[in-house]
Amino acid sequence: MPAPKNLFKQALKEGRAQIGLWQALANAYTVEISAGAGYDWLLLDAEHAPNDVPLLVSQLQAMKGTTSHAIIRPPIGETWIIKQMLDIGAQTLLIPMVDSKEMAETMVKAVRYPPHGVRGVGAALARASAFNRIPDYLPTANDEICLLLQVESRAGLEALDAIASTDGVDGVFIGPADLAADMGYLGKPGAPEVQAEVEKALAKIQAHGKAAGILIGDLSLAKRYLELGATFVAIGNDVTLLANATTKLLDDFKKAEAARPPADAKVY
């Protein structure tokens, strides 16, 4: 029995759009709720969310049996943490802050077993192999790992051709928030100057035969990116959804209360 088929990776190869939602609440309950909504993928964020390995395991478990695919973003692109993310069962990783071909090649080696890489052979102890109950996990695991690299700086854009052409990279994700900051537009990822660079980057990624991805909360921009050929697009995040919904609920209550006539008002 081989490693589980990575249906997300297969969808990217076939050019089928995959719509995702960012998960930053670091909570298995919210992940389970979001997975039940029908998103193609959920990003479990360990870079900017208060996640650790046990929390990530619980979120992966909450997604089991759903149609949503789990992607983990580790806090940093280091071999040791990538090893842990793979062993707990993640088959798709999004590596932040990639800005050179050298780093891209290092990440490819980190997700592959020897002799093609440097991933430590500890699957017998790991959730990834169903605790050694998948007998052919080791010889088949490499083929089912999907490696996505996040480019989010001017240096990354300058090296984009080299990064996207790296063998073993399945897709490149443009991070508009950090890119905007690096370009001098902190907090303004929708600035025309930033968007021009984003659109050029999406085209360049595809020119190398790789899947292009992005996260954007502006739904019209998300549609625009899909029209430009982006195949994995996140359209929001759980933190903002909850923050906006709780604020709106209280505002709606206050408005309804203010509009209600006094109890002693005469009705004619």
Question: What are the SSEs and their pairings?
Answer:
Blueprint (H helix, E strand, L loop, with lengths): L6 H7 L4 E6 L4 H8 L5 E5 L7 H11 L5 E5 L5 H9 L4 E4 L5 H10 L26 H8 L1 E6 L2 H5 L1 H5 L6 E4 L1 H7 L9 H16 L3 E5 L3 H9 L4 E6 H22 L9
Parallel strand pairs: 1-2, 1-8, 2-3, 4-5, 5-6, 6-7, 7-8
Helix pairs in contact: 2-3, 4-5
Radius of gyration: 21 Å
Amount of beta strand: 15-25%
In the CATH hierarchy, what is the architecture at level 2? Alpha-Beta Barrel
Q: Unreliable segments (pLDDT under 50, ≥5 consecutive)?
A: none
- CATH fold group: TIM Barrel
Tell me the structural class. alpha/beta
Number of strands: 8
- Give me the CATH superfamily: Phosphoenolpyruvate-binding domains
How are the strands of the biggest sheet laid out side by side? 3-2-1-8-7-6-5-4
Shape: globular
Give the termini distance in whole angstroms: 77 Å
Count of discrete domains: 1
Give the C-level CATH assignment: Alpha Beta
Q: Figure out the total of helices.
A: 12
Q: What's the multimeric state?
A: single chain
Mean pLDDT across residues: 95
Largest sheet: 8 strands, parallel
Give the proportion of residues in helices.
Answer: 40-55%
| Helix and strand pattern | HEHEHEHEHHEHHEHHEHEH
